Every structure is written in C-alpha cells, then in structure tokens.
Amino acid sequence: MNRWAPRLTRDKSDTLLLLTAALMVLAPHFGHLPLWTSAGVCATLLWRAAITWRGQRMPPIWLLLPVSVAAMGGVYLSYRTLLGRDAGVAMLALLLAFKLLEMHARRDLFVVVFLSFFVLLTSFFYSQSMPTALFMIATLVVLLTAQQSFQYTGAVPPLGRRLRDAARLALLAAPLALLLFVGFPRIQGPLWGLPGDAHGGKTGISDSMAPGTLSSLAQSEEVAFRVRFLDPAPARNQLYWRSIVLGDYDGRTWTRVPRRRGLQRLDVAIEARGRPLRHEITMEATGKRWLALLELAGPDFSVPGHRVRDSDEMEQFTMDPVTQRLRFAAGAYLDYRLQAGEQPERMRRWLELPAGFNPRTLALARQLRQAAPGAGPDQPGRLDQQLSELVLARFRKQAYRYTLEPPLLGRDAVDEFLFDSKAGFCEHYAGAYVVLMRAMGVPARVVTGYQGGEMNPVDGYLTVRQSDAHAWAEIWSAGAGWRRVDPTAAVAPERVSRNLARALPQPAGFGLGALIELQNDPDSWLAQLRFSYAAMNNSWNQWVLDYNPERQRSFLGELGAAFGNWRTALGAALVALLAAALRRRRRRRPAAALDGLYQAFCRQQARYGYARRPDEGPAGYAARLRAMRASREKHAAMDQFLTLYGALKYGAPKPDTRPASLATLKTLLPLCR
Fold first, then answer.
1. With helix as H, strand as E and coil as C, how does 60-114 read?
2. What is the three-class DSSP state of 250?
3. Which of 210, 212, 449, 574 would bridge 243 by S-S if both were Cys, CB 3.0 to 4.6 A apart?
C-alpha cells in the first residue's frame, strides 16, 4: 500500500472516498433490488473506480444515454411500473451509479452528494431497526467526510481527522433533530410510513390446526408481542395467552366453529374473582385480526385505531388486519369461572366427532369410561375430572415423547399418535386429548395461543416469541364451567414451568448443547448480553418507531408537569448555571491549550532529532527546522504553525479570532509529522 500511495493524487483519493460513500448508501438496497440491478450498480461503481485509478477519460454521453434508457426499461419489465416504492428506489439506485460516470463539473459533484443523501433516506422504507439506524449514521459520517473533502483549498487533513470532523458536524445537528422529533406534531403511523419489516412479524396462529402446524412455528425466534406488567407478574404456569378456539374436527384438521346464520349469540356468563391484573401489550404487526390476550382478559379494553370484537368462545379480534405495531392496555382475571351455569344441551356442539375415523381411539375412550370410579349426583363435574385424569395419566406413565420432529401421520392421525408413534408436539397432545374427552361424552375444545414468555431483567418486559406458540384444551362440566387443561404438561412439565428449550432434548456435538445451555442460563454472560440487546431494541421500538401522537401528548404532558414542579425547575436552573460556569472556565484556558499544542509540536519534531533548545524561540526553531530533510508541504506546514504560534503567544490577537486560530493550529499539527 505504501508503494501505491504516492500514485493517488488528491482528486483521486477524494473521488474514491465518494465512491466508498456511494457504495455504503446503496449496499442496504441490494437485498431487495433485482439481481440484475444490484449487479449493474456494482459494475458501474467498479468501472468508475477503474477510471479514477488509471486517470482515464469519462465515457461519452452517446454511450451512457442508451445504457440509462435500457436500465429504465429493465426496471419497468421487473416491476411493470415506474411508480411506487420498489420501482422508484431501483431507478434512484441506477441513476446515482450512472451519475458517478457523468461528473464533469463541481455542480455534478453536488448532485451526486445530495442524491446520495436522498437514497440514504429510502433505506428506512424497508427497515427501521436499530442496526439499520446505526449503519445509516456511519454512512452519513462517511458521506459528510466525502463532501467536505472537496471543499479544502489548501492542505487537506488526514482521513481520520476528516472523519472526526464529520462526526462532530453530525453531533451538532443531533440536538435540533431530537427537538424536532420530540416536539414536532406527529402523524398517525410508524416512522417514514410502512417499512418492509413492518409486516415482518407473523402471528403464527391461524384459525386451523393440523399435526405439524405449531411444531414448525416453534423454531421461529420472531417476537410476537411484549408485555409490561403494571401489577406484580403472575407465575409462569399462569401465562396462557388465549387467541383462537378450535372446535370443528374433520379427522385431521381442527378449525373454528362457524357461526350459523340465524343462531343467536350465547349469553356468556363470567364469574371473575379478585382484581384484574393490569398490563400493557406491545403487539408486532401480523397482517391478521386475531389478538393474543392473557386468560381471562377483561372486556373493557381498546386497541388504538381499531374496533375490537369478541366471540362466544372469548376470542378477541379486530375488524381490520393489524398492519403495524400496536400498544394497548389490558386487564386479566386469573381466577374465573366461564359459563358454569350453562345448560348441557347447549354444549352438544363441543361433542361432535367425524364418523369413520380413529376406531382404536374410540375403543380406548370406552375402556377409560368403564374404568372411571364414577361420582355421585351431587358432584356433576367429578366424573369429568376423573376421566381427564385417566387420559393425562396415560400420557405420563406410557412412553410418550415431546418432540419438534414428530413422524408423519396418516388418515387416522389420532390412532397412529396414541398407539404407534407416541411422539408429538403440543398440537398432537391437545388434539388427541380433546378427541378422547369428546368420545367419553365430555364437551371439549382446543385453544391455541402462546404460553409463557421470557422476562427481561434489564427493562422488565416479558417477551413472547413465536416459539412460545402453544395449544391446550378446555373441558366443560355443569356447575364448574370451562376449565383449562394442558395435556403437554403431563408429558413435558418443563414446557409450562420453564420454557420450550428446557422441555426438548439438547443437541449434542460441537459444543452446541453447552452453548444453548449457556444461553438459557439467565445468569450467564451470554444471556445478559442478549437481554441488554433486547432491552435496547425494545426501547428503540417503544420510543422511536412507536412515537405516535398519543405517546407524544403523554410525554409532553409529563414533561410539562415535571418542569412545573419548583424543585425540578430549580434543578434545571442549577444545571444551566453549571454549564455556563464550565463554558466560562473553558474560555479561560486558551493559553493552556496553545502551550499544549506547541509542546506536542516540539515532541513531534524531537522524534526526528530536532528537539527544541531551552533558549530557542519559535522563529529560531523554524530557521533550524528548515534544514530537516522533508517534503515541501511539511516545511510549509511547520513554518505556518510556528508563525501562527508566535503571533498568538507574543502578539495581541482579537479575542473573537483566537478560537479559529487554535483550530488552525490543530489542523496543521498532523501535517507536520
């Protein structure tokens, strides 16, 4: 590299820096642009770099014009339009690359720089995550560095110094940007409209369930929602997030019970005990209408921007799909009775089974019914409880396995699971349990949603992921109502008491099991690092991406109330006085700063054998340094440094010019090496 360095003139180095900034601007778009567009942009940048390196002439306009027209035609063929987000960004990327081949005047340089700023903003159309924002800040600093590099008329500081100056320039604008972000009137919706990752969250819970549905979803670490408890958080075995209730079964797939036309809704009686558990849910965008709420969510809650409805099965859903992140408050009664006084005749729809399926399961149900001890007439729900315990005891005592990779099942899926494979995920156990209970005359249904979650000790939020998707069951008894039963807990109790990773066998080989164990240990350094990053990402979502009009009004109201307090106002005044005192003290230290720069210069030259003598002044020192073997630029920088130092030290410069002169000395110091 040192052998090549002299070949790079200032124009070449500045142009290559601009090409680097342009590549950083365009790189985030390569993931969603068509392959030919990304390849064309990279080829154009390489072509421009080769022209700069070799000092060749720019391509003529008669060559660039047909290439540009062909590129625009390619955009139209790829998107069937020249309008819209994707087509517009593709055209901007190509135009920026082609404009780099058509830089003939200073005006063209400014066009490239400002077009790069605009393309930089379009990255937020696709992702608004915290890593994306950090990369955009780094790109902004490099772009500002390239812009200011073309502004120098004399000696150019080293690249590191220019990068630091650009970073300081960006920091100077940060307070104003923060003030505008906090106080400027907000519009409803996420920052910069709907980015590509606004729909990245997937609910994972649909209105149907078949073997393998949830086991494939359990391998996803996507966040479903986050919860902040305003009251003490409940135990993990109470964290059941109810979403969709499934009651129709065709022998393989469970679906929701359709609402029959003309049938009136049931008068669902709920007996809630105690006070509701208050919490706040931040739900990721799903593109669907179903909500997942802690059992049993109270009816008095609302979702901003949506109309909320419920069903007889205590499902909660919105009238329109959820296409952006939502935050809403809710309350849940953990101790309740649901439809305890309902007439048994109205529960018959929860006894239906398809004819001609699973004969061995039906025979097992008859055997279990005969083996039940029975109950007296004063205990109507006792027999149902005994039958449930017999089914759960079978799961516990026989060689059933909890696994993410169950074998494929055929036509009689429940028969093959109960008697042959004996291996399955939560949907296998919940579905088989409900079939057995219905076959024994007990109303039962499948409930899907999420169970558990991971509490982050850094910010106190409970994170529920797609891997926490779960299926359980409910059985109904006269006088007792619907009761939750989790058949999975009979086979893998760790799934409910701890998490999914603890319930599954750990993989062996290459230390993977030890790594997973280290990650699941909440006291390990890896888990603490993961918790810290998750907390920062959650804060980014809560205070930047989800800073909506409602949150703005709340924050500004709290800020106004805080400054209305005389203690807070006194504290703010003291902080302002301290800042003024520090600024005044800094103004009193220019002499120390000047001497420090001169001492740094002397130490710098002493390394080359030209140490300053004790009786030597700036002028004499400059005369002796002229004998040093160095470049013409270095001698000019040393003479300018010592001349300016002598004027500041022994002359009488104006106070308003002294800071600028010190800044000039700081700029000259690296050039004197």
1. CHHHHHHHHHHHHHHHHHHHCCCCCHHHHHHHHHHHHHHHHHHCCCHHHHHHHHH
2. coil
3. 449
Pair of tokens at residue 375: 């109950």
Active site residues: 426, 470, 486
Torsion, Cα of 376, 382, 386, 389 (10° steps): -170
The Cα-based distances of 34 to 9, 91, 332 in angstroms read 36, 11, 48
DSSP assignment of 169-213: HHHHHHHHHHHHHHHSPP-SSSTTS--GGGG-------SEE-TTH
Q: Is the pLDDT of residue 571 over 70?
A: no
Backbone angles phi, psi at 348, to 5 degrees: -65, -25
Q: Is the pTM of this model over 0.85?
A: no
Residue 196 CB neighbour total at 10 angstroms = 15
Residue 171 in tokens: 């920091």
pLDDT at 196 over 80: no
d(CA 595, CA 201): 59
**Helix 85-99 vs helix 61-79: crossing angle, to nearest 10:** 160
**pLDDT digits 0-9 by tens, 412-426:** 999 999 999 999 888
Beta-ladder partners of 228? 280
CB 340 within 8 A of CB 269: yes
Pairing mode of beta strands 223-229, 277-283: antiparallel
Cα dist from 266 to 81, 272, 308, 333, 351, whole Å? 51, 18, 18, 21, 17
Would the pLDDT of 513 be above 60? Answer: no
| Residue 631 buriedness (CB in 10 A; 0-12 / 13-18 / 19+) | exposed
φ and ψ of 277, to 5 deg: -80, 115
Q: Whole-angstrom Cα distance, residue 302 to residue 280?
A: 11
- The token pair at 449 is 């949603």
Cβ contacts of 178 within 8 Å, gap of 6 or more: none
Rounded to an integer, the average pLDDT of 36-65 is 88
In sequence order, the β-bridge partners of residue 410 are none
pLDDT in tens, 82-92: 888 888 899 99
Spatial distance between the Cα atoms of 125 and 201, rounded to a whole number of angstroms: 16
Distances (CA, A) of 77 to 34, 72, 555: 11, 9, 48
Mean pLDDT for the chain overall:
81
Do the Cβ atoms of 440 and 394 come closer than 8 Å? no
Q: Which residue has the tokens 């005359």?
A: 441
CA distance 142 to 25: 10
